[in-house]
Design brief:
Elements: E1 4-7, E2 39-42, H1 46-59, E3 62-68, H2 75-79, E4 82-87, H3 98-108, E5 112-114, H4 124-132, E6 136-137, H5 142-149, H6 151-160, E7 168-169, H7 176-186, E8 190-194, E9 203-206, H8 209-227, E10 232-236, E11 242-250, E12 256-268, E13 271-277, H9 284-300, E14 305-313, E15 319-325, H10 332-339, H11 343-351, E16 368-375, E17 377-378, E18 383-384, E19 387-388, E20 391-393, E21 401-405, E22 412-413, E23 420-428, H12 431-444, E24 446-448, H13 454-460, H14 464-468, H15 475-479, H16 491-516, E25 529-535, E26 538-547, E27 550-555, E28 560-569, E29 572-577, E30 580-589, E31 593-598, E32 601-609, H17 610-617, E33 630-632, E34 637-642, E35 649-650, E36 655-661, E37 664-669, E38 674-679, E39 686-687, E40 692-696, H18 699-705
Parallel strand pairs: 2-3, 2-5, 3-4, 5-6
Antiparallel strand pairs: 1-4, 7-10, 8-9, 8-10, 11-12, 11-14, 12-13, 13-16, 14-15, 16-23, 17-18, 19-22, 20-24, 21-23, 25-26, 25-32, 26-27, 27-28, 28-29, 29-30, 30-31, 31-32, 33-40, 34-36, 34-39, 35-38, 36-37, 38-40
Helix pairs in contact: 4-5, 7-8
InterPro entries: ATP-grasp (IPR011761), ATP_grasp_subdomain_1 (IPR013815), BC-like_N (IPR005481), Biotin_BS (IPR001882), Biotin_carboxylase_complex (IPR050856), Biotin_carboxylation_dom (IPR011764), Biotin_COase_C (IPR005482), Biotin_lipoyl (IPR000089)
Subcellular location: Mitochondrion matrix
Catalytic activity: butanoyl-CoA + hydrogencarbonate + ATP = (2S)-ethylmalonyl-CoA + ADP + phosphate + H(+); propanoyl-CoA + hydrogencarbonate + ATP = (S)-methylmalonyl-CoA + ADP + phosphate + H(+)
């Protein structure tokens, strides 16, 4: 393949936020006169590529972006000084092609490579390839990558280094029967997880023999697909632990320091959702012990770069080694904010052979930071969403807000890559301020064109347990045992939202009246008086008025909502409702419907006159098609396996198929017992969101045939 090379010297066409827009970010920049690199290539894409480019610009280092054809106009290619096409949209034909990346390095004359996270960031062969060609790898040495990337080897090394480890089997599990035997010896529950890789892929918790057998199969398949290595290990699962990790920084001169901890317990499917630093749970004694063990492990493997040692911490603050990530973590910004250290800069300095200028005594904790991972996904089903961002506005105008992203308005969220839209980070002088700023930032974040998980994020940060810091890795499962139901409005919030919708409807009517210059009497405008507002199937009748820049809605029960200080900066409306702040986004509006986004959730509100409401209520209800007889894919992806054929009889909950999306394997189960009437697809096919996989015979038809 011919590599496409584009040299860019002109300013990028898209608005790129400067480092100062990080808000509260206070980089402890060394501004060292030492020679670093003239040009650096980023072997990655998306937000992490953009993040690395920002620090390189600060250091005066030219940058090279590599990209697939799907990313030809991506933000990281616009920000970089040069860009090189290395393949097609599939990662296996682009971002994982070491040979093409090496050609891009030689083509551009880059002296160093930053791998970001994911892709080749923890690939020993890639680091070795660069070393063999005299290219600096902005990461640790090959030995550290190899032994820490193998969970079996890393556990043994950690134990030898004096690091606390979780009880379990230190060898490779030989098969499902062996896994069951080990689980019975260790004692349930157990964790089955891939020996290679990370990111929550290839991990399953099992509470009995049947779950071990199923978990072994799914974990090995997932590990093979994600890392090319299906080896598994098994260990005791610590029920309701906290996931707390230590950031370390080491150089090639024997120096190693820790930069405090990150609390990463809010997870779903073993993938982090919200992180914070510091942790509410650790005291100084435990923090120091964890940090010292993390540094001991780094020294044991001759580590040199930024790295993260993950621990599970129980209710008594006993902590156990989980794994070491030999790369920059997704959640590194919260550490940067509370320490003032630019971790990317430190990685580049270490890769250039320079010693750390920071000592352990330089590292303190100043303030508090949260990070919310904003994903393009259905938060109720936890499934990825694809599409074009036709409206996208980041809340970077608010104080203490930083947004790390790799997209802009008009970008496409495709099925080929991780569905992350951005990392939304807030900083405050204490936890309460940082948390308040996170709520405000989520409310002001405008994302249109794909589903997103802001409703879940917004709901989580309001949960009393989260606010108090009483969390564990089972927080989401315990808080939403039947799955996240969507953001549930209180009656007070419903009334406020009804009032806002009625206010917007009245404002539109007033504007229309002025535009058409109707002969309506100013004393009795047609928008005044009582209106019926429908929200979520509930009809509210309100008496509305607008005097002295205050809009008032009086509900039938007597409750009054008064809106004042209304500010509208399209599409965000800010006001006070009974002297309490409210932020709402106006998505669209027509003569009767007001489409609003509130606390991250879309609501369609209908405003009618009383006569219009009476007419509407006598209209026949429109029937919708039932999908009880179908199994459809809830997300775009690839059909990995199909376990039934036409004529098969299935039971409720039986596995019908496995669809792989974003490198995660998802089981699709039979919604009820029945007979397979039709199969629509074949294994290996690429499926669209909602595409039918199989159809069950109608229950009435099946019952008639059984007579």
């Amino acid at each position: 393949m011919m590599l496409g090379h584009h040299l860019r010297r002109a300013a990028p066409a898209v608005r790129v936020l400067p480092a100062a827009s990080y808000g509260a970010l206070r980089f402890l920049s060394t501004d060292a006169p030492e020679k670093l690199f003239d040009k650096l290539l980023i072997a990655n894409r998306g937000e992490i590529a953009c993040r690395v480019i920002k620090t390189c610009k600060k250091l005066g280092i030219e940058t090279v972006a590599v990209h697939s054809d799907a990313d030809a106009d991506a933000l990281h290619t616009r920000m970089a000084d040069e860009k090189v096409l290395i393949g097609t949209a599939q990662s296996s034909d682009s971002y994982l092609r070491m040979d093409r990346i090496l050609k891009a390095i030689k083509l551009t004359g880059a002296q160093a490579v930053h791998p970001g996270y994911g892709f080749l960031s923890e690939n020993k062969a890639f680091a070795q390839l660069l070393e063999d060609n005299g290219i600096a790898f902005v990461g640790p040495g090959t030995h550290a990558i190899e032994v820490m990337g193998d969970k079996i080897a890393s556990k043994k090394i950690a134990e030898d280094a004096g690091v606390n480890i979780i009880p379990g089997f230190s060898g490779v599990v030989q098969g499902p029967d062996h896994a069951i035997q080990l689980a019975q010896e260790i004692g349930y529950p157990v964790m089955i997880k891939a020996s290679a890789g990370g990111g929550g892929k290839g991990m399953r918790v099992a509470w009995n023999d049947a779950e071990v057998r199923a978990g072994y199969r799914l974990s090995s398949q997932e590990a093979k697909a994600s890392f090319g290595d299906d080896r598994l290990l098994i260990e005791k699962y610590i029920d309701k632990p906290r996931h707390i990790e230590i950031q370390v920084l080491a150089d090639s001169h024997g120096n190693a320091i820790y930069l405090n901890e990150r609390e990463c317990s809010i997870q779903r499917r073993n993938q982090k959702v919200i992180e914070e630093a510091p942790s509410t749970f650790l005291n100084e004694e435990t923090r120091r012990a964890m940090g010292e063990q993390a540094c001991a492990l780094a020294r044991a493997v001759d580590y040199k770069s930024a790295g993260t040692v993950e621990f599970l911490v129980d209710s008594q603050r006993n902590f156990y080694f989980c794994e070491m990530n030999t790369r920059l973590q997704v959640e590194h910004p919260v550490t940067e904010l509370i320490t003032g250290v630019d971790l990317v800069e430190q990685m580049i300095r270490v890769a250039a052979g320079l010693p750390l200028t920071l000592k352990q005594s330089d590292i303190g904790i100043k303030g508090w930071a949260f990070e919310s991972r904003v994903y393009a996904e259905d938060p109720v089903k936890y499934l990825p969403s694809t599409g074009h961002l036709h409206r996208y506005i980041e809340p970077t105008n608010l104080p203490g807000v930083r947004v790390d992203t790799g997209i802009f308005e008009g970008s496409e969220i495709s099925m080929f890559y991780d569905p992350m839209i951005s990392k939304l980070i807030t900083y405050g002088k204490d936890r309460n301020e940082a948390l308040q700023r996170m709520g405000d930032a989520l409310d002001h974040y405008v994302i249109r064109g794909v589903k997103h998980n802001i409703p879940l994020l917004r709901d989580v940060i309001e949960q009393p347990r989260f606010v108090s810091g009483d969390i564990s890795t089972s927080f989401l499962q315990e808080t939403y045992p039947d799955g996240f139901p969507g953001y549930q409005l209180s009656q007070k919030q419903r009334h406020s939202l009804v009032a806002v919708a009625a206010y917007l409807h009245m404002s539109r009517c007033l504007g229309d009246q002025e535009y058409i210059k109707d002969d309506v009497s100013p004393a009795m405008p047609f928008y005044a008086g009582k209106v019926c507002v429908t929200l979520g199937g509930e009809v509210f009748t309100i008496e509305q008025s607008d005097e002295d820049f205050r809009y008032t809605a009086v509900f039938e029960g007597g409750e009054t909502i008064e809106l004042a200080n209304v500010e509208y900066d399209a599409p965000v409306l800010r006001a006070s409702a009974n002297d309490e702040p409210i932020t709402v986004q106006l998505v669209s509006q027509d003569p009767h419907k007001v489409h609003l986004s509130y606390v991250g959730t879309d609501f369609e509100v209908v405003v009618r006159t009383q006569e219009e409401q009476r007419c509407f209520e006598i209209l026949p209800e429109k029937k919708t098609q039932k999908m009880d007889n179908f199994v459809a894919t809830p997300m775009p992806g690839t059909l990995i396996s199909l376990n039934v054929k036409e004529g098969d009889t299935v039971f409720e909950g039986q596995e019908i198929a496995i669809v792989e999306a974003m490198k995660m394997q998802n089981q699709l189960l039979a919604p009820r017992a029945g007979k397979i009437k039709k199969v629509y697809v074949k294994p290996g096919e690429t499926l669209d969101d909602g595409e039918l996989i199989v159809e069950l015979e109608d229950e009435a038809t099946a019952a008639e045939q059984d007579k």
